[in-house]
Structure formats: structure tokens, C-alpha cells
Amino acid sequence: QKEVEQNSGPLSVPEGAIASLNCTYSDRGSQSFFWYRQYSGKSPELIMFIYSNGDKEDGRFTAQLNKASQYVSLLIRDSQPSDSATYLCAVRNNFNKFYFGSGTKLNVKP
Amino acid sequence: ETGVTQTPRHLVMGMTNKKSLKCEQHLGHNAMYWYKQSAKKPLELMFVYSLEERVENNSVPSRFSPECPNSSHLFLHLHTLQPEDSALYLCASSQDFGVPGYTFGSGTRLTVV
């Protein structure tokens, strides 16, 4: 079983729609959850992190965490073509170990 | 310069060569990391240094040898690599080991021929 699982995609959404990216994790003791965006040929950049159950909003991005169900999601409102990238979910467990998912490729069509 | 800088950006090497990857961070961070990113696979943590001491080594073959001479510099020495070692090698740093929010460098695209 992988520590962090993501659907590889591609997820295609029209411009202006809401993109929903999901991630599940196996270690129930995980404490911190991160979303990174990686453009093709570039390095990952941190866009959101969340520690507590519920929603956390930052501009067009909302991270949602449900520890009981062991999933974390990222919603992107009013999706733009510039949001087209691979989104990596990362989880830190209570031993300070980080695990990354394989990423979900998002295509936002004009 | 600011952030995390990696050199070279691209490297092609033969299986008998010896080369080194360099990483430098200008953020005042205390922890530095080497990650390997292969196509369609998760980022794989290779080495972690905290305050210049290696704190984690995730079963990496000995043909990869890290060096951290100070908290701002990290090297990855390569020798007798295999074609399957071709990948993007990413350096990252964080304020302290285990503190969330890595800053990644641009990576070195390594091709072993």
C-alpha cells in the first residue's frame, strides 16, 4: 500500500470551472498535509498546507482535510489555463517523515 | 541570489564517469534534502541533512554519495551510475528538519548513457 495515493489523471476542466483534486493517505497518525504545484520541466512549489480538519482557503484555492476518512483535497475555483500543471500531495507523519504522491495532472481548457 | 540554486541544470554522463551535483541555499535554512523524481513515480527522498549532519538515508545505493560541508551547501557525488539512475534530482531546504514547507531548487536533469 502506498503511503499517499493520487489519481494520475489527466483531469480536464473547462476554464472558469472548479477543479477538484483528491489525495488519500495510509498513516492515520499523519499530522500535516501539503499541496505542491509542478509545471512541466519545473520544480515543485508549495501552494497550500493544512493541519486541522475542515477547510482552509487562500484566494482561489481551498484545501479540505478529513482525518477520519484519511483524505485531503484541493479545490481550485475559477480555473485558468495557467493552473494547468501536476499537483503533488505530500503528507508528514508523526515521525517527521514526508511522503509524496505521484501527482495528478490538471488540464484547464480555454 | 535568493532561494535554492542547483547546478548544473542538465548533465549527461557515462556509466564510468564521476560527477557531482551542487546545491546552495540562501534562505538561512538548517535542513537540506536530496530527492529523486522519475517519470510517473512519487518523489523519492534520498538524503536529509540537518545542521550539516546526515539524519536520514533511505536505502540509497552507494554509487550516490552526499556531502554537506556547511548548512548552505549540499553536494551529491555520483560514480558508476546505471541508466535507471536517469532522473530529475531535486534539492530542497526547510527551516529545520521536519518543519513543513520545502523550498525546492530547479533540479538537475541527469541522463546516464
Task: Outline the fold blueprint.
The complex is a heterodimer of chains A (110) and B (113).
Chain A: E1 4-5, E2 11-14, E3 19-25, E4 32-38, E5 45-50, E6 54-58, E7 61-66, E8 71-76, E9 85-92, E10 98-100, E11 104-109
Parallel strand pairs in A: 2-11
Antiparallel strand pairs in A: 1-3, 3-8, 4-5, 4-9, 6-7, 7-8, 9-10, 9-11
Chain B: E1 4-7, E2 10-13, E3 18-25, E4 31-37, E5 44-50, E6 53-57, E7 64-70, E8 73-79, E9 87-94, E10 103-104, E11 108-112
Parallel strand pairs in B: 2-11
Antiparallel strand pairs in B: 1-3, 3-8, 4-5, 4-9, 5-6, 7-8, 9-10, 9-11
Which short descriptors sum up this protein?
heterodimer, A: 110 residues, mainly beta, six-stranded mixed β-sheet, five-stranded antiparallel β-sheet, globular, B: 113 residues, seven-stranded mixed β-sheet, four-stranded antiparallel β-sheet, 57% strand
Instruction: Determine the mean pLDDT of chain A.
Output: 93
Taking pLDDT < 50 over at least 5 consecutive residues as the criterion, the unreliable ranges of chain A are none
Radius of gyration of chain B, in angstroms, nearest whole number: 13 Å
How far the N terminus sits from the C terminus of chain A, by CA atoms, comes to 37 Å
Number of helices, where a helix is a run of at least 4 consecutive DSSP H or I residues of chain A: 0
Percentage of residues in strands of chain A: over 45%
Q: What percentage of residues of chain B falls in helices of 4 or more residues? A: under 10%
Helix content of chain A: under 10%
Q: Which class best fits the helix and strand makeup of chain A?
A: mainly beta
Q: Encode the helix/strand succession of chain B as letters.
A: EEEEEEEEEEE
Radius of gyration of chain A: 13 Å
- Given as residue ranges, the uncertain stretches of chain B (5+ residues, pLDDT < 50) are none
* Count of extended strands of chain A: 11
Sheet of most strands of chain B: 7 strands, mixed
Query: Shape of chain A, please?
Result: globular
Mean pLDDT, all residues of chain B: 91
What's the SSE pattern of chain A?
EEEEEEEEEEE
Count of DSSP-assigned helices of chain B: 0
Structural class of chain B: mainly beta
Regarding quaternary structure, how should these chains be classified? heterodimer
Report how far apart the termini of chain B are. 33 Å
